[in-house]
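Saturday, quiet lab. Running sequence design on the structure tokens for the scaffold JK sent over.
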């Protein structure tokens, strides 16, 4: 079978279960011929991903809030797979208290944690990844339009996504000479584990659906297909950009 990712090895970080956007990305990239390697956050989450991926060698633990965990993960990746051609960062976390009501509910600790896991982690992972990435290579992260708009309840995560997008642009600038492109996909609302942490998420999903150009929510498969394109050499001219895959919700 010929695909736009034939011969490429790609690391996918952030599959929690079969609803995860990262899983949509992995499936779409595999369909285009890529060989996929996965990281999972901890032993508890390993149980879920093990149901989707049976080859144990392809499953590597990585908690992005720990530099030690990131270093061990990339050491294992290098040992098992040698060089890789790209990585998907589909990771975010904020405590429930940071995701509802007034932004004044935010605390120093909650804010720090959300920004650490959801934004700094892209830089932390890129630092470790440069040693194993080929030239050319591609990095894609997942963001949301709450980065540039004050949406209800999204709160601290919106601030984290603004930092994530900015970090993505600086990375694109600094990794360009290594042949590494860095982009973000701004996905429309999709029902996943992460979304269920946001206060009033059912309402958010409904509003989002009504604001698409055709009244149908975007799917993780559609996000995955864009991810496959950005990972491929067809996208060699695109770096430092935020690509909206939200069925036009951001037009409103
Ligand atoms: N679902 C949406 O509507 C939507 C829209 C736009 C952007 N996004 C973004 O897509 C990305 C993926 O989220 P999702 O919606 O697929 O939800 P998800 O819950 O399936 O995925 C979130 C992942 O983050 C991982 N994670 C959290 N803390 C971590 C840590 N310390 N170390 C390692 N991994 C950690 C979780 O294990 C999980 O796999 C996130 O960045 C999210 O903000 C989601």
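Result came back. Writing it out in full:
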């Amino acid at each position: 079978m010929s695909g736009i990712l034939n011969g490429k090895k790609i690391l996918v970080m952030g599959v929690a279960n079969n609803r995860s956007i990262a899983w949509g990305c992995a499936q779409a990239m595999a369909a285009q011929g890529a060989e996929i390697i996965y990281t999972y956050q901890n032993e508890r989450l390993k149980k879920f991903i093990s149901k989707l991926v049976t080859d144990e060698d392809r499953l590597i633990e990585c908690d992005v809030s720990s530099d030690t965990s990131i270093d061990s993960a990339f050491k294992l990746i290098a040992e098992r797979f040698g060089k890789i051609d790209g990585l998907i960062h589909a990771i975010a976390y904020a405590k429930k208290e940071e995701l509802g009501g007034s932004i004044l509910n935010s605390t120093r600790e909650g804010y720090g944690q959300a920004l650490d896991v959801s934004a700094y982690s892209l830089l932390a992972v890129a630092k470790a990844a440069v040693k194993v990435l080929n030239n050319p290579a591609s990095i894609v992260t997942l963001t949301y339009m709450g980065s540039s708009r004050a949406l209800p309840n999204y709160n601290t995560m919106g601030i984290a996504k603004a930092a994530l997008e900015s970090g993505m642009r600086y990375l694109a600038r600094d990794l360009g000479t290594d042949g590494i492109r860095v982009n973000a996909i701004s996905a429309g609302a999709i029902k996943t584990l992460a979304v269920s942490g946001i206060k009033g998420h059912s309402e958010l999903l409904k509003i989002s659906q009504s604001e698409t150009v055709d009244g149908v929510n975007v799917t993780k498969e559609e996000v995955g297909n864009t991810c496959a394109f950005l990972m491929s050499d067809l996208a060699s001219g695109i770096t430092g950009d935020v690509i909206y895959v939200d069925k036009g919700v951001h037009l409103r």
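Notes for JK: The two ends are 40 Å apart (CA to CA). The pocket of nicotinamide-adenine-dinucleotide is lined by residues 14-16, 20-22, 41, 45, 62-65, 90-93, 117, 142-144, 187, 189-190, 192-195 (CB under 6 Å). Ask whether to fix the surface positions before the next round.
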